[in-house]
Task: structure prediction
Amino acid sequence: MGRFFATVVPLMKGVLPPTIVGHGRMSGTPPVPDDLMPKPRPKNEMFMTLPAGTGKNKKKAKFPQNGLGMCCRATAYDDVLVYRTVLWYLLLGGRHIDGAHLYLNHNAIGKAIKEAIRRGIDRSEIFVTTKIAPSHYGYEKTMATVQNFLSEDELGLDYIDLVLMHAPSFPLSTACGREGKDAATCRKETWLALSALREQGVIRNAGVSNFGINHLREFENVGAPIANNQIEYNPFVPEYITETFKYCDKHNIAITAYFPLGGDIANKDKAMRNEILGRLSEKYDRSVSQVMLRWAIQKGCAVIPGTGNPKHMQENLDVYGFKLKEEDMKTISELKHGVSGFTHMDYRTAA
Result:
C-alpha cells in the first residue's frame, strides 16, 4: 500500500515517482548549505501537552503546535528531497516532524534528524510522530513493526515520541484479519501493543488517526490513555468532524490537524480564494495560509502543513507572531455554513 501511494501521489501531480525513476531525480527543495547552523526556535512558540508517562517514561510530554507534515505531495516521496526538507525545517527552528510507515520516507527523515543533531540541535527538542498502518495491526505484528521503526533501515532513533494508529481499519486483507479476527479486535490488540511499547520506553506516547467517536470509545479503560487523534481539521469541515473535535477536547485527547489549509488541491484552492479569508489576510497583513493556521492553533490544535519550500516553512513558523481577535475567530469558524463543494473523508463508517 505504501508503494501505491508513493507512486500515485507524484503521478497525480504530473511527476514521475521515485518508485519508477529512482530517488534524486525530482526537482524541488534546494540543497541545505553545509555551513547553515540552527536558527532560534520561533518566538512565542505554543505547545500541546500529552499524558504523563509510565514505566521508563515518567515525564509529561509537550510538543509544538506547529509541525511539518511529510505526506501527500510529490516531494514527500523522494528520499533526497525528504532529507533536505526535514533538515531545512529543523534548522529554521521547527521541531515537530510528522511521518508514517505508509509514506516510505522513514530512512530519509531519520538521516535528516541525525544531521540536525550533528549541527547542534538536541534530540530531546525534536518531536517525531509516525504511524503504523492497519495492514500491520495485531499484537505481535505491531510489536515487531514499531520496534523495526527504530532500526537503521527506518528512522534509526533510540525512541519515538508518538506513534499513531493510522486509520481504524483497512479495506483489503490483513494478517490480523486472516486469523479470523474482526477489525475491532485487531484495533484493540494493536492498542495493547502500543501501550506495552510505551511502558518499555520504545515510544513515549500512543495515539490514533482518522478515528471517529465510535472508534475512540473502544479504548476507554483499555491500555494507555489516547494521547492524540490526528484528523482533518479546518474551517470547512462538516459537523461530524467538529463533534469528534469536541469529544477529544472533553477527554483530554490532543488534536493534530492535517489538511489545515482546506484539504486536497481542489479544496485548498477554494479556501485560498475565499473572500472573507482574503479580507482577514489584508487586515492582519498575513497570508491566507497563515490566517488559517493561526485559527487552528487558537482553536487548540497542532497543525502539520506540508511543504518542501524553505520560504513557506518560515512563513508557517511565523504564525506564532500574531493573534486573531475573537470576533474574527468566530467569523472563520462559521465559514463552512456559507460554502459548498468541499469534500471530506468520512471515517465514521470504517469497520
Q: What stands out?
A: Residues 208 and 229 are 5 Å apart (CA to CA).
